[in-house]
Amino acid sequence: MLTRKPYVFAVAGALMFAAAACGSSDDSSASGSSGGGSGSITYWASNQGTSLESDKQILQPELDRFTKETGIKVNLEVVPWSDLLNRILAAATSGKGPDVVNIGNTWSASLQATGAFVPLDDTQLNALGGKARFLGPSLAATGAPGQPPVGAPLYSTAYALYYNKHMFKDAGIADPPKTWDELVADGKKLTKDGKWGLAVEGASVSENAHMIFTLGQQHGGDLFDGSGKAQFDSPANVAAVKQYLNFIASDKITNPSDAAYSNGTEALQDFIGGKAAMVMWQSASGTLKTGGMTPDDYGVAPIPLPDPSSGGRQIDSMVGGINISVFDSAANKDGALKFVKFMTSKQTQQDLNKAYGSLPTVTDAYDDPAFQTPEIKTYQQILANTAAPLPQVTNESQFETLVGNAMNQLFADAASGKPITDETVKAKLTEANQQMTN
Amino acid sequence: MVVSATSRPGGGRGSGDPGGPPPPSGAGRGRATARLSVRLRRVGLPYLLILPALVLELLVHLIPMVIGIGMSFIKLTQFYIRNWSAAPSAGWSNYHLAVDFNGPVGRALLHSFFVTITFTVVTVALSWFLGMAGAVLMQGEFRGRGFLRALFLVPYALPVYAGVITWSFLLQRESGLINHVLVDQLHLFSDKPFWLIGQNSFFSIIVVSLWRWWPFAFLVLMAGLQNIPQDLYEASAIDGAGWTRQLRKITLPMLRPVNQVLVLVLFLWTFNDFNTPYVLFGKTAPQEADLISIHIYQSSFVTWNFGTGSAMSVLLLLFLLLVTAVYLLITSRRRSDA
Fold first, then answer.
1. How far is Cα A181 from Cα B251, in angstroms, rounded to an integer?
2. In chain B, whose CA is at the least distance from the CA of A427?
């Protein structure tokens, strides 16, 4: 009998390990997916507020209301932007993820290609109030043209120029700049005593990519040609990148330190702290308010447009925004679609967009006086007239990474005083272009 | 846990030897069969006991590696991540892409490879030197030795993220302590240098990595020094050997086996380290400090091309295997010569 024991232990041990391994993976998938049963869904929200905690506080009352109306419990997790795409990819790969997720609308076509999200057909869109209920540009950023959208627009944003009214007054500038020449001239007046005209997030891959899209449009260039082939190093795009880098390199209206700003908050913090007089940003009012700035302290104006005679397009922003999508692998697809309907309902749209300082994506939500402020009006005009969606192509996320990264390196060169010429810019963009693999 | 389990059979066999005598019952049966089954059990027991470890090893290490190798032969882009089996075979094209040094992907990989080699050699050399100096200097008894030892081990004990993110704050151009001391206090530079982008980022990553790894060298060498018998030093002192001679003739030769393992482990860890550059620079490292682990991560995750990333990982694995084999061959042979 004694002889048997070690065998038994060994086998039992092996089984235990195996069981433990399986058990733990089961646990994580269970918590990752719907939490079981038809009575609950899991929701990954993106970080829209000043912190993950503030997001939870803003969202929880709405989620409670949803639970009250439908009896479906929502397990909320707020995922930081730095992790969101990876988490979504991992969920798509394993087939185990949340039921509902927020995505940056620029990722729509890329994620659409994975097939991980439920496409919303006309019946489902009609359940949400029909296509006409949504803002056109926002709806256009929910997937490749001609295919059913893989999500509903949730929050709408655009880029605008935020300027510090007190600093403008002290420098004797009456109005925000309307052309790029005026912006540079104003910036030079504002740059003194350790303060700078304009702050940029120079090492942020996504901010760089967004700016290059907009400026490229203004120079009459496209990132992808008609057949979807990348052409990052076209003369128009080179000119756009150079213009942006020159704020540090030759105009000297931007602090060279900005070349290292990467986490998506630093330039705005400089603006709040009075270290920079202007910043180009999406829906900053929530963060500005937390930072102690009131609409008396700052103004919002459209980013300058090019001279119409220059041949460039009258585009001064991308169509920014957040979409809400349902995972194809959702355990509770029915509940998930109900949740999407709830999140795009008038009341929820008004509550959440008010809290975040973004724009409702549905037209009927605008009757609230909170959306009649000058700031929101400015944004509405930008979105309606001068904003364009980023190319809805499957390799959009590759574009953001490669071009954004090339820009980071060029910014580092500009900040350390290396010459920024057409050749140096083109070389980096060509390198990025060649790395587009599919 | 696994180790202690595998070391047990020897002990159990030696002391108890329960399987030794034939079973008390069934004496009528042939002795030979009984002995055979006992022998079988004896021989089989160790294998059975390491079975859990083996299963775990397969589960945790080998299977992911095999899957990784498999991934490197398919075109695994965003279109196929939900259903890998549908991904078209890529043949060797992922490898061709990675080693085509005239193409942009291969050139970038080669650049990253050389940066990583330089970084690793410098970091390992300095870590070893600092660890050796620290260990030798702290060999003798003095007041506060325990405190200093503990202090030196702090970087190794700290969670990576906490330590490295603090460095990244220190190295900020505008508000970092390092520029404050160098520029505002000491006036060494007229203009604040960048530490996290551009050329200097290479030195930054070396300093931070050194800070992180040298305590390990210190710890291992300190343990190695404890094993050198004190009589050797006493005897050599009587023979008139000075401190440097003792170091050269006793300490270093006696530490040889320790050093052999230490340098190898440090090399592999530093070469493969992902956490330090990732926390210090974020997802996109500056070109001058584009370490290979981050580079591969970028090539696969950020551009959503997992096949190419896997191919690069396999190449990296082969390289490290080669380095390890050559290193062990050379150092072992030298030891047997001596």
1. 71
2. B104
Q: Which of B114, B283, B315, B134 is nearest to B213 (CA)?
A: B134
3-state secondary structure of A66: helix
- Tell me the whole-structure pTM to 2 decimals: 0.79
Paired with A156 in beta bridges are A321, A359
Say whether B16 sits in a helix, a strand or coil. coil
How far does the CA of residue B5 sit from the closest CA of chain A (Å)?
9
The whole-angstrom distance between B211's CA and the closest CA on chain A is 23
- CA of B261: how far to CAs of A18, B213, B323, B337, in Å? 32, 15, 13, 18
What are the structural domains, with CATH classification, of chain A? 36-157+319-388 (3.40.190.10), 159-318+391-434 (3.40.190.10)
Domains of chain B in sequence order: 1-49 (no CATH), 102-337 (1.10.3720.10)
pLDDT of chain A along its 438 residues, tens only?
A: 344 444 444 444 444 444 443 433 333 333 334 444 458 999 999 988 878 898 999 999 999 999 999 999 999 999 988 788 889 988 988 888 899 999 999 989 888 988 889 999 988 999 999 889 998 888 988 988 889 999 999 999 999 999 999 999 999 999 999 999 999 999 999 999 889 999 999 988 889 999 999 999 999 999 998 888 899 999 999 999 999 999 999 999 999 999 988 877 889 999 999 999 999 999 888 888 888 999 899 999 999 999 888 878 999 999 999 999 999 989 899 999 999 999 999 999 999 998 888 899 999 999 898 888 888 899 989 998 999 989 888 888 888 888 988 999 999 999 988 889 999 999 999 988 888 865
Rounded to a whole number of angstroms, the distance from the CA of B323 to the nearest CA of chain A is 30
Q: How far apart are the first and last CA of chain B?
A: 37
Centroid of chain to Cα A226: 25
* A18, A86, A401 member nearest B303 (Cβ): A401
- Do A114 and B18 lie within an 8 Å CB cutoff? no
Task: Give the one of B45, B82, B97 whose C-beta lies nearest to A93's C-beta.
Answer: B82
A201 contact B CB<8A: no
Closest-approach residue (CA) in chain B for A429: B104
Q: Contact, B132 vs B225, CB < 8 A?
A: no
> How far apart are the C-alpha atoms of A104 and A413, rounded to whole Å?
30
| Shortest CA gap A117–chain B (Å) | 11
CA–CA separation, B116 and B113 (whole Å): 5
Of B82, B192, B287, the CB nearest to A92: B82
